[in-house]
């Protein structure tokens, strides 16, 4: 089976083929999304909220990211694995960024890293690419800056924000990123950015005109039930299913129905 490469992402944009990316934080989920045929698996720092129970992505460490990414890489056969650089692993300077991102590549076997930020982080993207580390940018809503913005609101609404976002997109591309995530921006602005770049845009809450889409796996299958911003579409209700299965188990054990002959030796 042919592996998806960073070049494949660019080729897909040129050919007008959509790119699909989903998160995974463990071996089995990686296997499911890989076998279903996604192009990319993002080991998001959202794992802090989804699997570790933190209320933001701020507390996530390199150690936690590495631990989960190793499991994801073991479950992957085809998709490109992207390591989401956690808060404070790249914001303190290009040297720290290269050392941490290099560590991610060396220790986990991932293919690329993602970092949040636009114009202000372009120099860091350049340093990573120069060191041989493929980079995905991430602009618009940047969850690691939640404490500066005081929330997860839509970005690019005012004319000033719109201009800044277009500049961010250009800076990320010029710095050498091979793709860029656009988070929670109006569809029309995402369209404008997508048309102005030669690298693919991967949207989350950024409308239909992006070159690809990314979602958190647990949101898509209805496992993270309390998280429901407008951009999440639930394709299944696994949270409900799982709870109902557990209730049945409890009931059957209490009634002496489980285990029966079929499940005993
Ligand atoms: N499960 C999950 N899915 C995600 O997409 C995700 C995470 N976790 N954790 C990390 C970041 C945080 N993200 C977020 C978080 C909140 C909203 C959001 O729209 N929240 C509110 C609005 C809050 C506001 O206006 O301040 C909502 O409408 O639910 C969007 C993206 C995206 N990422
Ligand atoms: C929502 C995506 C883009 C992300 O950064 C994450 O899962 O952490
Ligand atoms: Mg993230």
Strand content: 5-15%
Q: Please bin the fraction of helical residues.
A: 40-55%
The small-molecule ligands in this entry are: 5,10-methenyl-6,7,8-trihydrofolic acid, 3-methyl-2-oxobutanoic acid, magnesium ion
Compute the average pLDDT: 98
Shape-level CATH architecture of the largest domain: Alpha-Beta Barrel
Unreliable segments of 5+ consecutive residues: none
> CATH homologous superfamily of the largest domain?
Phosphoenolpyruvate-binding domains
CATH topology (level 3) name of the largest domain: TIM Barrel
Q: Strand count, sense and closure of the main sheet?
A: 8 strands, parallel, barrel
Number of strands: 8
How many angstroms does the end-to-end distance come to?
41 Å
Principal-axis shape = globular
Assigned CATH class of the largest domain:
Alpha Beta
- State the order of secondary-structure elements, H for helix, E for strand: HEHEHHEHEHEHHEHEEHH
Number of domains: 2
Count of separate DSSP helical elements: 11
GO molecular function, one term: magnesium ion binding
Family: Belongs to the PanB family.
Pathway: Cofactor biosynthesis; (R)-pantothenate biosynthesis; (R)-pantoate from 3-methyl-2-oxobutanoate: step 1/2
Organism: Balnearium lithotrophicum
